[in-house]
């Protein structure tokens, strides 16, 4: 049972999205303002949040910041009428996992929802059953857990998907566009600078100060995940 919370102040829009999601077999609930939406997202266990950018009480960006500050890694799909690059980067920087500019076609909306709700299993490829271990990092695609040694590292859905892609083939160099394609899966919609942004998030969470990064930048080519010496 996949539970989705829609935080959207336009009642007609919220009702329509909830109906479409229920028709697809999801459990969909709605919240009409940012404060209610954030507190419900923090109190309850949803599998996905669909968050409008412009909301009364708390903006979509404030909601995402609030979740991430509380170390809640639930995937967030941000809906926005603003589709300028700077706004996307602000939202992604705050911790949203994906973006959908309004107006959008419902098949595209559902495709994004499927991608975000399936990601933990889908990113591992193959049977997806076994944990990946490279050096001191272990990634469990079933439980959606990453550890450095015995310490648990909390990642957002996008950070998790990117790490899983890199850890599939340790030592292989991935270009930014290959990573963009395999993690975000929407060619041409998002710039490759998003890959750089998310590599920086992963480094912040995975690496220890004054030690070489787990993710090595190969200048002019891309990134590789290597066991540390
Ligand atoms: Ca709105």
User: How are the strands of the biggest sheet laid out side by side?
Assistant: 2-1-3-4-5
Helix/strand order, N-terminal first: EHEHEHEHEHEEEEHEHHEE
CATH third-tier fold name of the largest domain = Rossmann fold
The total of helices stands at 8
Number of domains: 2
Mean of pLDDT: 84
Strand residue content: 15-25%
Residues in helices, as a percent range: 40-55%
- Tell me the total number of β-strands: 12
Ranges where pLDDT stays below 50 over 5 or more residues in a row are 120-129
CATH class of the largest domain reads Alpha Beta
Structural class: alpha/beta
Shape: globular
Cofactors, ions, other ligands: calcium ion
The CATH architecture of the largest domain: 3-Layer(aba) Sandwich
Distance between the termini: 43 Å
Full CATH superfamily name of the largest domain:
Response regulator
What does the model show?
The chain has 229 residues and is α/β, with parallel strands linked by helices. The protein folds into 2 domains: 3-118, Response regulator (Rossmann fold), CATH 3.40.50; 132-225, Winged helix-like DNA-binding domain superfamily/Winged helix DNA-binding domain (Arc Repressor Mutant, subunit A, Orthogonal Bundle). It is 41% helix and 21% strand. The chain has helices spanning 11-23, 34-43, 60-69, 85-94, 106-122, 157-168, 176-184, 193-206; strands at 3-7, 27-31, 48-52, 76-80, 98-101, 132-134, 137-140, 145-148, 151-153, 174-175, 215-218, 222-225. The protein has a 5-stranded parallel β-sheet, sandwiched between helices. It has a 4-stranded antiparallel β-sheet with strand order 6-7-8-9, covered by helices on one side. Strand 4 (76-80), helix 4 and strand 5 (98-101) form a beta-alpha-beta unit. Helix 2 runs parallel beside helix 3 (60-69), helix 6 packs across helix 7 and helix 7 crosses helix 8. The chain is globular and about 50 Å long. 38% of the residues are buried. The structure holds calcium ion. The site of calcium ion has 5 residues, from loops.
């Amino acid at each position: 049972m996949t539970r989705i919370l829609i935080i959207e102040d336009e009642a007609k829009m919220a009702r329509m999205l909830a109906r479409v999601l229920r028709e697809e077999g999801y459990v969909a609930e709605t919240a009409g303002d940012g404060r209610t939406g954030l507190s419900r997202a923090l109190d309850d266990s949803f599998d996905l949040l669909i968050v409008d950018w412009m909301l009364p009480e708390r903006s979509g960006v404030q909601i995402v910041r609030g979740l991430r500050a509380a170390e809640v890694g639930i995937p967030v799909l941000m809906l926005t009428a603003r589709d300028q690059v700077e706004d996307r980067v602000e939202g992604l920087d705050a911790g949203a996992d994906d973006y959908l500019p309004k107006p959008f076609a419902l098949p595209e909306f559902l495709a994004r929802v499927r991608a975000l709700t399936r990601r933990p299993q889908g990113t591992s490829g193959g049977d997806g059953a076994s944990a990946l271990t490279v050096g001191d990092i272990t990634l469990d695609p079933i439980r959606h857990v990453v550890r450095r040694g015995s310490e648990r590292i909390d990642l957002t859905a996008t950070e998790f998907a990117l790490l899983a892609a890199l850890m599939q083939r340790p030592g292989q160099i991935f270009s930014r566009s290959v990573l963009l394609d395999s993690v975000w899966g929407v060619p041409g919609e998002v710039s490759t600078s998003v890959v750089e942004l998310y590599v920086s998030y992963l480094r912040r969470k995975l690496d220890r100060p004054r030690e070489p990064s787990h993710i090595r930048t190969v200048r002019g080519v891309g990134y590789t995940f290597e066991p540390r010496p």
